[in-house]
Amino acid sequence: MMFSQIGDIERFLHNRQAALGMNFGLERMSLLLEKLGNPHHGQKYIHIAGSNGKGSTLQFLKAILIQAGYKTASFTSPYLERLNEQLKINEEMITDWELVEVFRKIWPAVEEMDQEGKGPTQFEILTAAAFQYFHEQNPDVVLLETGLGGRLDTTNVVQPLLSVITTISLEHTNILGDTLAEIAFEKAGIIKKEIPVISGVTEEEPAQVIREKAKTESASCIEMGRDFMVKNIKQSGGSQTFTYQYGKTSAENLRINMLGAHQIHNAALAVTAACVIREQYGFAISEEAIKKGVEMARWKGRFEEVSEHPAVLLDGAHNPAGTEVLIKTLKDVYPGKKYVFVFSAFRDKDYQTMLRQLEKEAKSIILTEFEHERAASLEELNQIQSDKVQAWKDWHQAIREGLKAAEEENALLVITGSLHFLMLVRPLFAAQK
Predict the structure, then answer these.
(1) Which terminus of the chain, N or C, has fewer Cβ atoms within 10 Å?
(2) What is the residue-averaged pLDDT of the chain?
(3) Separation CA 284–CA 198 (nearest Å)
(4) 346: which DSSP letter?
(5) Which of 229, 261, 296 is the last residue of a domain?
(6) CA distance 397 to 374
(7) C-alpha angle 241/325/156, rounded to 5°?
(8) What is the pLDDT of residues 97-129, one digit of tens each?
């Protein structure tokens, strides 16, 4: 395979995903990394898992670390506009040329595994590329987001300084389990022996599973609502302020520019992570770096306004818990406003529940589909019996109909259901700005 430009990599990964799909376990990943000389060894990792909020928590923490002067690498998924977004040093994406170079280096090992009948999956190859790139860049710290689950996730080959579990909700039930406890068990698989874990999980059933796993691993478990908390939450315009408390650490009037109560939850997790690595590993992180960092953090596709006339929001809610948070945030930020939703989702998500949630609040819902092997077809989505629902096979047409309906109704257009869907949609609005 000859990689000479970014398009070659994108085609290769797309074909690989179509051919091999998802295949969980760490054996192939460990073998691939071994063939590459274990480039993941020797870095300082903070490992982040959870049903929702991983990306936002990572962004808050990254902004704090950058403010503190640390060269910070990050591996996230999925991307919104370009594959390069998934591998960053500070806020700089890997360049096309660097990505081509990395793929050329890892390709012989992939080819060897293919010949042995142990071909790595698309996500395993991308994760290996991230480890190889970070090994060459030698950052001070790497922020690593799990792809799916935790215990058997491709990223779970590292020994981190710290693990973070953001939230637990029902998602990927065909893979992770049917109960919050089962899903918590999978996410808690990132907890390592004597490595502290920060948990934002407040429901008792999953929280108990995380506590038990931490106890088994002799890992300290730092819990939201018990060990650290937020209070005095205020919202004004496009920002929110809150007071943060953890042990003897207290910070008043922390300001964030991401909307929704869930983002305060995510910011608090990030601040706690900064405090823990400062206390336990000697990171030099000032109160000023924390304050500036959380204020500067941004994350595309999360309650992101991309147009004013009509008002258009993109939100990556991709499970019922995310949809619930989206609805609550809409009511808080745009009280009394009417909502038109354009919706598309993966078939392995609980999209029927999500649509029922939206239908209660919607002026209208426009269903559509997009090209991806996991995407639900229009026929699969269009099971909800409601006169509020219309369906368009072409998602471009669905967006046009949504814009028209929002203008006619003086409503807010909200495009949601899948981050992969937003990845396709967002460039349309970015081009207009």
Answers:
(1) C
(2) 93
(3) 19
(4) B
(5) 296
(6) 21
(7) 95
(8) 999 999 999 999 999 999 999 999 999 999 999
